[in-house]
Amino acid sequence: xxxxxxxxTQEELEAQKRFAREFHSLPGRPRTYHIVTYGCxxxxxxxxxxxGMLEDMGMTAAPARExxxxxxxNTCCIRDNAERKALGNVTWLKEIKKERPEMLIGVCGCMVQxxxxxxxxxxxxxxxxxAFGTGNIHRLPELLYRAVDTRRRVVxxxxxxxxxxxxxxxxxxSPFQSYVTIMxxxxxxxxxxxxxxxxxxxRSRSADDILREVEGLQARGVQEIMLLGQNVNSYGNDxxxxxxxxxxxxxxxxxxxxxxxxMTSHPKDLSDELIAEYAENPVLCRHLHxxxxxxxxxxxxxxxxRYTREAYLEKVEKIRRAAPDVGLTTDLIVAFPGETDLDxxxxxxxxxxxxxxxxxxxIYSPRVNTRAAEMPGRIDPALATERIERLIALQEExxxxxxxxxxxxxxxxxxxGLSRRSENQLTGKCSRNISVNFPxxxxxxxxxxxxxxxxxxxxTLKGQIIEGE
Length: 469
Fold this sequence. Notes:
By secondary structure, the chain is an alpha/beta fold. The chain contains 14 helices and 21 strands. The protein folds into three domains: 2-161, Methylthiotransferase, N-terminal domain (Rossmann fold), CATH 3.40.50; 164-401, pyruvate-formate lyase- activating enzyme (Alpha-Beta Horseshoe); 410-465, CATH 2.40.50.140.
């Protein structure tokens, strides 16, 4: 609820700034840092804030973990393999620390916020110096100061996720593309998902704060922003009389930012008003990520997704009527507890009907303290692997069909840099969020250019700059 919200006061922010200043004079303080980020765009943006605070503390980024004085792992726990990967990489640093005992190792983010994980880190990973949860990101200067000053381990995990902190320093990765968080947390409690437990309940930033941030980015020449939230469609619902998400999009578009994206959109809250924005708002990129998770009504109900297959397809039809050029992407989970062959075939059929540009596909991963973790009907791993391989093959076929339809069309591409495959090629994302490679002058990096699509690879498009526009 909104009345549970704790807005970080200016006094507390000033206290953190004092810790940052005093950190400079600590003997033996770390001089360089390296952040390893796992998971979603929210985590990536959190890492930009962590980097901003560390640089305020007088530290500079090291190019590699083994070269840094302080290594911080910003973790994800949405799936078991993400958690195991993070812990494996933390363990790898144990050997580096034997050679460089002055190195400090920190772990933060969603995994640390998970119930019982802080205690596990304390007992099983004694070489970790600092651990803190997602609700304590703003306290990094204080926590690291204490770890260095006392030479003792520091662990800080809030019980409740009700924090909303404005004004944190940010070290943005790109000068022309930026993340802007508009809300934190999630109220949906899908039966398989741990996010509400580690990110807390929904907390919307004020529209005025968001617009000030966007206006500052626009003034610095940023070409594209991505508005972030676990469910952006419910932005403002926790603020009586608050601005709706479609209205926020309209206000942001009036700042002069050339391109707007957003992640992620829950299907149950996708409104006709938001769909209309795709037809009416030229600044809104022609891409919508709409996670369906399953094509089976039985599985959707067990997942607590609160929409049916039919309702989802109806919204897809509305989107395609409003803006036929919008590319749809999705998330899909296979082998959810109790998933039958018919349930899986329903998912395959839905993928054929929608024709996604691409999809993130996952085998169900049980998460502690979620309802699905206690459900009967676990799927045999061999069958789960067979199903996901079939799903991936189908989606690859759908992707190739969608890409083929784009050949000959004009696309606006924000040039991100040189292609990894060739120094003579540029690469960037078109409005549909598909990578396009094309020959061009590196001076175009950071600019939006018109490109004619000439061909398609497996995951990218090929093109030529349209001269004279």
